[in-house]
């Protein structure tokens, strides 16, 4: 599998299980790209929703994608600390200068004190029925939600205390 190169600017494409585009982030700078992991950074990037509406992110963010985990993590740097938005999703693929994944609705919002809320359980239930998620996918997603919560509790991977700050410093190097 090809993967993006450090310093390269790519798009991020989020799809739904039915193959329809969900959301596109126009510019993310690659800070690390390997077969297993992609780490990117962006700030005030344009996001386009499936209905064509656009908006601009409000703060710098470090994005973490893993080729073997069914979730991705966005660490947003705000004045009062790092907030995380975690998407339960397929592992990423990289093609046509875009990192792509399937968004499976369930999200976890993590606060600077590492407390969290699981979001969009109703949306997950609705889409599971409407898009006919296979039982195997449902089991994988629930298992990976538990893995994600374990990572949060253990402050593992992108939740490690210095992770976002360290990668943000690298992002600033490229943003000059």
From TrEMBL:
Gene Ontology molecular function terms on file: magnesium ion binding; nucleoside diphosphate phosphatase activity; ribonucleoside triphosphate phosphatase activity
Stored Pfam families: DUF402
Keyword check for Amino-acid biosynthesis: no
UniProt EC number: 3.6.1.15, 3.6.1.6
Reactions catalysed according to its record: a ribonucleoside 5'-diphosphate + H2O = a ribonucleoside 5'-phosphate + phosphate + H(+); a ribonucleoside 5'-triphosphate + H2O = a ribonucleoside 5'-diphosphate + phosphate + H(+)
Membrane-spanning ranges: none
Domain DUF402: 18-156
Keyword vocabulary terms for this entry: Hydrolase, Magnesium, Metal-binding
UniProt binding sites for Mg(2+) 2: 105, 107, 120, 123
Cofactor entry: Mg(2+)
InterPro entries, A to Z: DUF402, FomD-like_sf, Ntdp-like, SA1684
Residues that, per the record, bind Mg(2+) 1: 87, 103, 107
Residues the record marks as active site: 23 (proton donor)
Functional description taken from the UniProt entry: Has nucleoside phosphatase activity towards nucleoside triphosphates and nucleoside diphosphates.
PANTHER family according to UniProt: PTHR39159, UPF0374 PROTEIN YGAC (PTHR39159:SF1)
NCBIfam families in the cross-refs: PRK13662.1
Family: Belongs to the Ntdp family.
Protein name: Nucleoside triphosphate/diphosphate phosphatase
